Amino acid sequence: MKNAASIPITACHLALIVGIGLPPQPALADDWPVSQIVSVATGDLDGDGARDAALLVAPDADSTDDHALIVLRGTGFDEGAMEPWLSFADAAWGGTGMMVGNRPSVDFTDAGSLLLKSGNEAIGRNRWFQTVTLAWRDETLLVAGFTYSFYDTLDPEANGGCDINILTGSGISTANGRDSDVSLGAQRLELGDWLAAGAPILCPDG
User: pLDDT band at residue 99, thresholds of 50, 70 and 90?
Assistant: First the structure.
């Protein structure tokens, strides 16, 4: 499979997405403009051979919500035909005003995993970047991997992060430029449960 490519969003796409039965979500309103869709990617999330699509939707300017994640499933009936599938409110932090350096994004791996990317590379001294790898397993969207890094722009020695395979529990933890292997035990972590818990950082303590 080739690398997933972004697809354009038009007013017709928008009407389709909001008009055919998505569950109500605080971040999803019937009149959100196309400009609030900040990232779109396509890939085969469920491995059925039909291309699916993931979208990140920014909240209203006066909202305290984070960006919503919407996933459309390829029906396989016609090339490009899709239907509503999954939606998650508060799925990705993106600051305010869709500022460059804080804008989250979605992407797909060649294997069909969905990447949910966010970070702060624009505000303050504390910078961070996060990638949550999502995989469709047993009819559920799971957090399969978690990669996180941070650094202090005023203190070069203050940096760290981790790269963890959540499904196996193995990975690498980084502190002040030094890597160490970690083993946390395998987990089955549903995306909805992780978001309901406040989307905590999954790096090991210490």
Answer: low
3-state secondary structure of 15: helix
DSSP letters spanning 143-181: EEEEEEEEEETTEEEEEEEEEEETTT-EEEEEETTEEEE
Q: How many other C-beta atoms lie within 10 A of the C-beta of residue 15?
A: 11
3-class secondary structure, 192: helix
The span from the CA of 170 to the CA of 163, in Å, is 9
Is residue 41 predicted with pLDDT exceeding 70?
Answer: yes
Angstrom distance (rounded) from CA 100 to CA 66: 16
pLDDT value at residue 23:
35
Q: What is the 3-state secondary structure (H, E, C) of 48-107?
A: CCCCEEEEEECCCCCCCCCEEEEEEEECCCCCCCEEEEEEEEEEECCCCCCCCCCCCEEE
Partners of 150 in beta bridges: 128, 160
Mean pLDDT of 38-64: 92
The two tokens of residue 70 are 């919407």
- Answer yes or no: are the C-beta atoms of 166 and 148 closer than 8 Å: no
